Amino acid sequence: MTTNKLRYERPVIQKMNTGLMNKFGTRTEYEPVTHIEGVPVKSLIEQYGSPLFVLSEKQIRRNYQNATRIFSTRYPKVQFAWSYKTNYMNAVCQVFHQEGSWAEVVSGFEYEKALNNGVPGNKIIFNGPDKTDAHLIAASQNNSLIHIDHFDELYSLIRLSEELDLKPRVAIRVNMDTGIFPKWDRFGFNFENGQAWTAITRILNSKHLDLVGLHCHIGTFMLSTEAYAMAATKLCELAWSIKEKFNKTIQYLDLGGGFPSTNTLKGSYLPGSDTVPSIDQFADAITDVILGFGFKQEDLPLLILETGRALIDDAGYLLGSVLASKRLSDGRRATILDFGVNSLFTSFWYDHKISPAQPFSQQTEEMVLYGPLCMNIDIVRESITMPILEKGDQIVVHKVGAYNMTQWMQFITLRPNIVLIDQENNTHIIRKAETLEYLELNERIPEHLQQNAL
Ligand SMILES: *Cc1c(COP(=O)(O)O)cnc(C)c1O
Question: What is the chain's Cα-based Rg?
Fold first, then answer.
């Protein structure tokens, strides 16, 4: 007969802090997270290694359909464009494109990625301050939507269109005071100081450029719906003046991205899921302004949204394993994981929810979660109350779908596998773990350095 012997855990005396009681109790975990979309964490790690990124196709589609429903029940003409930089794994982009999302790109290689994914040129929005002449020409020829960021780009585009007789469809990116501090005024043309209007008049006076839209992207992880109402108001005012002074109808207003996910920002007292406004509230703020502004029904602009983070964060998980646990000099428990800030870039600004992947005892302790990197800033959580974790235990980090798979870096460890769980709960590798060979693919060793003295 085999019995499951309880693991010995040595008792610890814990300092109690008064006055800082968390109203949800001190335990942060009540149940282990043993499965993701019905697939056991244990078998995922067995098959694909640890650490491992996992994405749920079902959740991505659910998020997309939910956001589309919310906006299109409030406003008649809505279009989402997937923000490539938020997660540009091609499999992820294709899920969004299958759902009907256009592409929103901010660099030349992202633009090419969207074309390679089969997105028609006229459904690609090209943002960002760094577009080469070659990309401006390609985007014009493909009839993409070029969002002009600064006057130098505007003049380049006017010159190229005259030289090559192109007629690009353009919008300008507008930055503005939305009551948010710090102001995001480094991208686009400023509304308040008249720069945006100057850019508009230059475009409308050029025979080559076709001004079709107005764009803004007012920040990221925005907690204020009022800021979006303000942004929508200012874009509407510009569209209104364009109609009045130039008798030109603006086809679309693009309110950019920036809606928060339900992650918890570092330093927040309450979990993100309790504090961030819902997409419904953002949709109300934006569509109330546009619908109430007074446009004629046939002139109502298409509303474009470039939502990134809020559509993918909760569809991503990072699975990992405990390498060791130790006591720090001040007596605190430290748990060392097999992934660090190199893979989980967002641990710099989120207190990620982290769950043990196997059953655990009642005992909890405040601990630091470190990654495996040889650097002091490699901290996944500075302080978290968790059940005791031991070498070999597995954990699940929640809501990591946004920005990690694009901002990760090869530092000390290489990037792990990414697996997508499809709607029938089958698993697919969508990006293979990197190898030394991959890392060195682009390296060249000069002749005189090919031998060493050892
Ligand atoms: C990054 C970015 C987005 C997406 O932002 P989220 O905060 O992830 O929603 C959208 N538009 C532009 C121009 C961006 O740079």
Answer: 25
83, 173, 222, best to mutate for ligand 1 pocket (most atoms within 8 Å of CB): 83
Percent of the chain with pLDDT over 90: 87
Residue 121 counted as domain residue:
yes
Cβ-proximal residues to 119 (8 Å cutoff; 6+ apart), any chain: 97, 102, 103
Boundary of a domain, candidates 297, 313, 329: 313
Residue 304 pLDDT > 80 = yes
Q: Which two tokens stand for residue 196?
A: 């945006």
pTM of the model as a whole: 0.93
Q: Is residue 145 part of a domain?
A: yes
Ligand 1 neighbours (beta carbon < 6 A): 83, 85-86, 104, 106, 127, 217, 220, 256-259, 306-309, 402
Residues 122 and 190 in one domain: yes
Full residue range of the structural domain in which residue 179 is found: 57-313
Q: Are residues 244 and 179 in the same domain?
A: yes
Q: Decide if pLDDT at 18 tops 80.
A: no
Mean of pLDDT over the chain: 94
Token representation of residue 276:
């961030």
Model pLDDT for residues 160-199, shown as the tens digit of each residue: 999 999 999 999 999 999 988 888 888 999 999 999 999 9
| Phi, psi dihedral angles at 266 (to 5 degrees) | -55, 140
Instruction: Spell out where 372-444 has E strands.
Output: 379-387, 394-398, 418-421, 427-431
**Are 293 and 376 spatial neighbours (Cβ–Cβ below 8 Å)?**
no
- pLDDT tens digit string along 115-174? 999 999 999 999 999 999 999 999 999 999 999 999 999 999 999 999 999 999 999 999
Query: Are residues 225 and 371 located together in one domain of the fold?
Result: no
What is the spatial distance between Cα 291 and Cα 252, in angstroms, rounded to a whole number?
A: 13
Q: Are residues 325 and 193 in the same domain?
A: no
Q: Alpha-carbon distance 430 to 379, whole Å?
A: 27
44 alpha carbon – ligand 1 mean position (Å): 31
Q: Which residue has the higher pLDDT, 219 or 14?
A: 219
Residues 274 and 357 in one domain: no
Domain boundary among 262, 292, 313: 313
Query: Which among 342, 351, 352, 360 has a CA at the least distance from the CA of 412?
Result: 342
